[in-house]
Every structure is written in structure tokens, then in C-alpha cells.
């Protein structure tokens, strides 16, 4: 249709059932049918699980703060995914609730219980252990830019239905500024006040941020 469509209202159903909104605008009878066909074919034929329940656990000193993605949450510890496949991602944020011992490790576990298309009930468990540090310089040196910016993007997307676009852009900009300001304040050596100082692992963060706010 060429008429107005409220995508935010339509997206409520897929956002709670593990689905996705496909938006073709303006729809072209010449170029879009092939894309529509490929999207439908992939949705039908791709490997997927049904009736899934996921829980993330972590070591003492951390706790799961929030989940972000397309799912239904009925209890605080688990998320329900009517459908799950390799194209879906779930973002999990953690918060500190205790101190860590230096040179120790934190463990994380993600357990997914699901039903295959053949009716078999299975569980997939992923474990990972990461080193702890109390030094901010180590934290910035080992930062994962793609993972951190994905968090920023998802937070911005979640805020679009309830906030103005200018507010979302300001929030994204403030996040970038706060990260770089923290690095300059706590990790960088003495330098000129007008000099831009970037951690090596996050040196493309301003570029990513500019690209994002220009497309919002």
C-alpha cells in the first residue's frame, strides 16, 4: 500500500512473538517482488526453534539487569520466544552488585530450551568465562566496539516509539561523549585541553555515532 502505515503499532505483535517487521516502501512492482519472495522463502526454510525459553546466569558480583529484543517476558529471570532462529539476537545487560577480586574470572551461561520443527525438545547451553579487572585502562583497551555500539543502537531503537527523534539523537550523542570523557579523565595522560583523545579500541566510536544520528 502507498497509504500511511503506523509501523510502530504493527511491530507490537512481532516484537512480543520473536518475529520481525519487513518494511517495503515505496513498494515497487518491478524491483520488490523478488526481494519479497526471497524474504518469504528464507522465513519458511531457515532452521528455527519453537516454544523457546532462555535464561542467562552469571557469577556472584554481577546480576542480569535487562534483556532487549523481540520476546515475551512473564517472569523476571526468563524470556519466552515463540520462535527463534539464527537471525535473531538478544541483548543482555549486567550490573555490579558486589566487588570482584583482581585477576579472578566471571562466568556467564546462556541456556535455551526449545522445540525443533520435528517436535524434539532440546536445550542448548553456552558458557563463557572472562577476566575481571579493577583498572579502567584495561577495560578500555579490551572494549568491544561492535558489541557496545550495538547496545547503543538497540537502546535508541527502543526509545523511538516513546521519545522524539531529537531526544534520541541527543541521548546517543551524550553516550558517546560520556564514554570518551571518562577515558580522558581517568586513563589519558596530561595533554592539551583541545586535543581529542580516543582509546584505541573505541577510536571509531565518534564515526559510528555520527553515522547513526545522521540516519535517525
Automatic annotation (TrEMBL):
Per UniProt, residues of the Sec23/Sec24 beta-sandwich domain are 49-133
Domain (Sec23/Sec24 trunk): residue spans on this chain: 2-44
Query: Which Gene Ontology terms cover its molecular function?
Result: SNARE binding; zinc ion binding
Q: Which residues form the Sec23/Sec24 helical domain?
A: 144-213
Give the record's GO biological process terms.
COPII-coated vesicle cargo loading; intracellular protein transport
A single Gene Ontology CC annotation of this entry is: endoplasmic reticulum exit site
Q: Which Pfam families match?
A: Sec23_BS, Sec23_helical, Sec23_trunk
What is the name of the protein in this document?
Uncharacterized protein
